[in-house]
């Protein structure tokens, strides 16, 4: 693929970013020799089943249990793959988490636990704090997702309303040794926020969690404030974390670098905007549109195509009744800001194949996006107001649908500016 065929070219870059984060390709290089004695494999996240598959490809059949999203299961010979809901937890996730905790009971100093953690574990590992029902936990999760709060803030609340996050999963395995292998899907690659840090000590407080709820006006049931005060989050330095090693082996920066190398080989001038962008999707889109328009204005006819690459995790403050996600909303807002500017194309997708709660990775746009929408009776501005980006792009043929990618290194955004 070459930049002269923009949409397939952008899709090929995205596919390359996903490919290098596939656990089958990347996990074996960091997996140690299988320890002697009892070995238990646990994990959760949208990549966890693929990670378990990669482990058994090296170690052979293992005892264990991992929890992944419906549709993301993989065949394993010993490790049980449990399926549950994401991004809002369900009873299946709660039941599987209870069985995982039971599996860790009674482990000794000579036992070894391999924990496989990736994005999505915050919802898939579900053990509500004492006094909070599953239905109440679901309501808090849904409200957080609609609030526009960044992932770090959401995960602060999730930790303090859980019996398994914020180091509590690792504490349940103590005194066994534990190696936690992680795929990062959070800006900054802080292991404490990947899957809400089930194997990592946490320095946040119940007051921090309460402040998140206040700042983003998140409505909560009456059971939540007292439950926060009873938080069981494990502080850094606790002896129950002394036998844990946490290792991030795949991260957004690696995927962006692979896409950048592919684009440079195709003749592009690549400009990396960072792998940890956060903020409201439509606001980041406006910034990148302004940047792209400025570059296009000064681009000579014989210049190289310019590619803007970025990662991170954008948010959407939902005020409308549509169906959308941060990547599709970024593309919709970008198309509006570009207003049909010639020679600028873009793609934004989540590397896990799921943008928001829809089975859609994201979207792709070009100079004709708004014209095609108008011809089909769609008002792009109204679609953005209603947070209805997925329906908008479905109508005009601009969706990117991958199915389960079996990995998760967060958002991938590429804006291509061609000389004209």
Which features characterize this protein?
420 residues; alpha/beta; Rossmann fold; glycerate kinase, domain 1; 2 domains; 7-stranded mixed sheet; 13 strands
Quick description:
This protein is of the alpha/beta class and 420 residues long.
Task: Detail the topology: elements first, then pairings.
Blueprint: H1 6-20, H2 23-26, E1 39-44, H3 48-59, E2 63-69, E3 80-84, H4 91-104, E4 112-117, H5 121-124, H6 134-147, H7 151-160, H8 168-173, E5 177-183, H9 206-215, H10 224-229, E6 244-250, H11 252-265, E7 269-272, E8 277-280, H12 281-297, E9 306-315, H13 326-338, E10 344-350, E11 362-365, H14 369-375, H15 380-385, H16 389-396, E12 399-400, E13 411-417
Parallel strand pairs: 1-2, 1-4, 2-3, 4-5, 5-6, 7-9, 8-9
Antiparallel strand pairs: 9-13, 10-11, 10-13, 11-12
Helix pairs in contact: 1-11, 7-9, 12-13, 13-16
Question: Would you mind describing this structure in some detail?
Answer:
With 420 residues, the protein is of the alpha/beta class. The protein folds into two domains: 31-250, 3-Layer(aba) Sandwich (Rossmann fold), CATH 3.40.50.10180; 253-417, MOFRL domain (glycerate kinase, domain 1, 3-Layer(aba) Sandwich), CATH 3.40.1480.10. The chain has 16 helices and 13 strands. The chain has helices at 6-20, 23-26, 48-59, 91-104, 121-124, 134-147, 151-160, 168-173, 206-215, 224-229, 252-265, 281-297, 326-338, 369-375, 380-385, 389-396, and strands at residues 39-44, 63-69, 80-84, 112-117, 177-183, 244-250, 269-272, 277-280, 306-315, 344-350, 362-365, 399-400, 411-417. Strand 1 (39-44), helix 3 (48-59) and strand 2 (63-69) form a beta-alpha-beta unit. Helix 1 (6-20) crosses helix 11 and helix 12 (281-297) runs parallel beside helix 13.
